[in-house]
Amino acid sequence: MPVRTVLLGQGTCCISAGAKQISAALREEIARLDLAGTVQVKHTGCRGFSQIDPVVIIEPEGLLYSEVKVDDAPEIARSLLPQGQPIERLFYRDPVTDRAIPHHRDITFYNKQQRTVLKNCGYIDPEEIDDYLAVGGYQALRKVLSEMTPEQVIEAVKRSGLRGLGGGGFPAGRKWEACRRVPGDEKYVVCNADEGDPGAFQDRSVLEGDPHSVVEGMIIAGYAVGATKGYVYVRAEYPLAVKRLGIAIAEARERGFLGENVLGNGFGFDIEIFQGAGAFVCGESTALTLSLEGARGMPKPLPRPRTTEVGLWGRPTLLNNVKTFANIRWIINKGAEWFASQGTEKSKGTAIFSLTGKITNCGLIEVPMGITLREIIFDIGGGVPGGRTFKAVQTGGPSGGVLPEGLLGTPIDFDSLTAAGSMMGSGGMVVVDEDTCMVDLARYFLDFTQKESCGQCSLCRLGSVQMLEILNAITEGNGRIEDIDLLIELGESVKIGSICGLGQSAPNPVLSTIRYFREEYESHILEKKCPARVCKGLISYIIVSDKCKACMICLRKCPVEAIKGGKKEVHVIDQDKCTRCGVCLSVCPERFGAVEIIPGREVKIHG
Amino acid sequence: MKDRLKEILSSYKRGRGKLIPILQQIQERFGYLPEEEMVKVAQLCGVTESKVFGAASFYAQFRFTPIGRNRVMVCRGTACHVRGAPQILNEVKRQLAVEEGETTSDLEYTLETVACIGCCALAPCIIINNKDVHGRLTPKKVTDIFASTKKEGQDAG
């Protein structure tokens, strides 16, 4: 029997950081030291702390080695010998105290979290059903089929207070009940894994790290609403998630959890994977079902029937997000009351966020509803790195908004975030510092949504483009002061005049940045300056003469030959020729740091 | 070509909802969706050509022009954006001398952008041929990546 287990995260993010090569090297070393009998190397999903990937964990001690490199493999293998010692230099160092922390349970990033959906991500091998069974997998399904009626299952989901975690927050139990009540012998369960938000990766991580929890939740849902077929609508850009989900479905079928006679109970249910071809608007339920049917994914016009009544191929369809399904097994196993005891009065359970941007600890986190933004960003996230200052946090992706420092006390739940002008959305949480321009950020999100608009509603199709053009003008230095109010008026109109969530929320990033950072818009327009030094039309690159060593590097690399000077002759940027591409800044040796960006295009004083 | 298409289509039972998976398979085989193949899909699936083209043109995944030997995707996720993705995209464009969505004239590179690849800790990043992720980039690192890949290409050629 293995005495030790080496856990190696193999999520997309871990693999990008080199986890595959480390695994191969480590396995080779372990075999070479003849440790294969006592040490087991296990591939798992991502443990969420992307910042320090690739991570190696040694159990049962619970040691965590961070930012491991291939060259570390021999030393790690040797440490697993009977007389081996932990490797201190690979311990995670707390960025605040600089203290080395040997055990993962002591790392602040983890111990302030409350992991339910992500509990097994990073512990079990997602490609081995026995690993899932060993942590109580499919027990909820057994319990449901042997002890509960469909009505009792729905009652439990209702009592738990679980709300749809795809962003909408609609009470899951009520949706299940509505679908159950519609008569029909052909119903469908659809899992929405079309995570199109830029900056959100939690659905992917759950599918890569614990796919069976989603499969189990879907089977239970099928039993509850009376469906016999399930679909997982997953982004084609997530090849690893698709692969692992495919393995999980095949394994579940083999073991009798899926098929014509689930666990010999007479209930039949099967699941098929559908790879979405890339359209953000397909997050809307009627668009998603049309897409599954092979058509353009355009939301159906109002008044439209509920998907629970007329869904896929005109049949009653239950559509929930990955995380909603992944919660079901816990509600059944631990009880609705247990689930309802967590979180706030109206938002129960946990929330999962992709914490990214200008943050010390970037990664995937699961926290109880009701925790404040400040606790997430400063305690779990470790604040803004590099001595920079926190400016705002953006939640909810292109449909959400930005919240300034004054609102960091806002508790995380569906209603508080909406009231503050943002939203929970699909769980992206991007922290920005003083180097991020809020006008540019609004422009970035609007650029995304206007491209993704399906074009049915005139206000969404044309209004969003109009708003983008105004924002482009402002960031290029051609804005007029009345444009700010025009943006607000247009934004409100787009919201009213659109039939689906995409259009109704597309103006949010613009409206919330105006609401909280109006002075930045005014600087762009009145002073022709981008205070964050981002907008190309409103900044200048300069070479600080007393720092320049006349090394010729920037002069040679400048693609438009805008830099004048020579050997022993301080370099100067010709502002008329400069295209603000930033190459000079990135090539200037760090020890000189002679190239700087300044707000505005008035450079004579500094030049 | 017709035989290859038949091979793809034979794996699908005639019926509803298979148009997008069929188009995905064709694109995987050819690298893009050739017009004549889409016409044949319409005939064989019993739907109008406009329905096939309508669906294909709606989704970001489908391409109607041939693709280069190397696919360079610049991540445009929010984390990448706030950490300097626009400068990265500009530098890649400059290195390859193509715009977003275009292929170099020697068919060596196709430049695309992607909404998010979810490697936000490595922002800003690019992914080459769907497998090689280059993270924490600066414009200079981009220059170095293409200097070495181009050289490798020449050595191999």
From TrEMBL, chain A:
<protein>
    <submittedName>
        <fullName>NADH-quinone oxidoreductase subunit NuoF</fullName>
    </submittedName>
</protein>
<dbReference type="GO" id="GO:0046872">
    <property type="term" value="F:metal ion binding"/>
</dbReference>
<keyword id="KW-0411">Iron-sulfur</keyword>
<feature type="domain" description="4Fe-4S ferredoxin-type">
    <location>
        <begin position="539"/>
        <end position="568"/>
    </location>
</feature>
<dbReference type="GO" id="GO:0051539">
    <property type="term" value="F:4 iron, 4 sulfur cluster binding"/>
</dbReference>
<dbReference type="Pfam" id="PF10589">
    <property type="entry name" value="NADH_4Fe-4S"/>
</dbReference>
<feature type="domain" description="4Fe-4S ferredoxin-type">
    <location>
        <begin position="569"/>
        <end position="600"/>
    </location>
</feature>
<dbReference type="InterPro" id="IPR019575">
    <property type="entry name" value="Nuop51_4Fe4S-bd"/>
</dbReference>
<dbReference type="InterPro" id="IPR017896">
    <property type="entry name" value="4Fe4S_Fe-S-bd"/>
</dbReference>
<comment type="similarity">
    <text>Belongs to the complex I 51 kDa subunit family.</text>
</comment>
<dbReference type="InterPro" id="IPR036249">
    <property type="entry name" value="Thioredoxin-like_sf"/>
</dbReference>
<keyword id="KW-0004">4Fe-4S</keyword>
<keyword id="KW-0479">Metal-binding</keyword>
<dbReference type="InterPro" id="IPR037225">
    <property type="entry name" value="Nuo51_FMN-bd_sf"/>
</dbReference>
<keyword id="KW-0408">Iron</keyword>
<dbReference type="Pfam" id="PF01512">
    <property type="entry name" value="Complex1_51K"/>
</dbReference>
<dbReference type="InterPro" id="IPR037207">
    <property type="entry name" value="Nuop51_4Fe4S-bd_sf"/>
</dbReference>
<dbReference type="InterPro" id="IPR011538">
    <property type="entry name" value="Nuo51_FMN-bd"/>
</dbReference>
<dbReference type="InterPro" id="IPR017900">
    <property type="entry name" value="4Fe4S_Fe_S_CS"/>
</dbReference>
<dbReference type="Pfam" id="PF12838">
    <property type="entry name" value="Fer4_7"/>
</dbReference>
UniProtKB/TrEMBL annotation, chain B:
<keyword id="KW-0479">Metal-binding</keyword>
<dbReference type="Pfam" id="PF01257">
    <property type="entry name" value="2Fe-2S_thioredx"/>
</dbReference>
<dbReference type="GO" id="GO:0016491">
    <property type="term" value="F:oxidoreductase activity"/>
</dbReference>
<dbReference type="GO" id="GO:0051537">
    <property type="term" value="F:2 iron, 2 sulfur cluster binding"/>
</dbReference>
<dbReference type="GO" id="GO:0046872">
    <property type="term" value="F:metal ion binding"/>
</dbReference>
<dbReference type="InterPro" id="IPR042128">
    <property type="entry name" value="NuoE_dom"/>
</dbReference>
<comment type="similarity">
    <text>Belongs to the complex I 24 kDa subunit family.</text>
</comment>
<dbReference type="InterPro" id="IPR028431">
    <property type="entry name" value="NADP_DH_HndA-like"/>
</dbReference>
<keyword id="KW-0560">Oxidoreductase</keyword>
<feature type="binding site">
    <location>
        <position position="75"/>
    </location>
    <ligand>
        <name>[2Fe-2S] cluster</name>
    </ligand>
</feature>
<feature type="binding site">
    <location>
        <position position="116"/>
    </location>
    <ligand>
        <name>[2Fe-2S] cluster</name>
    </ligand>
</feature>
<feature type="binding site">
    <location>
        <position position="80"/>
    </location>
    <ligand>
        <name>[2Fe-2S] cluster</name>
    </ligand>
</feature>
<feature type="binding site">
    <location>
        <position position="120"/>
    </location>
    <ligand>
        <name>[2Fe-2S] cluster</name>
    </ligand>
</feature>
<keyword id="KW-0411">Iron-sulfur</keyword>
<dbReference type="InterPro" id="IPR002023">
    <property type="entry name" value="NuoE-like"/>
</dbReference>
<dbReference type="InterPro" id="IPR041921">
    <property type="entry name" value="NuoE_N"/>
</dbReference>
<keyword id="KW-0001">2Fe-2S</keyword>
<protein>
    <submittedName>
        <fullName>NADH-quinone oxidoreductase subunit NuoE</fullName>
        <ecNumber>1.6.5.11</ecNumber>
    </submittedName>
</protein>
<dbReference type="InterPro" id="IPR036249">
    <property type="entry name" value="Thioredoxin-like_sf"/>
</dbReference>
<keyword id="KW-0408">Iron</keyword>
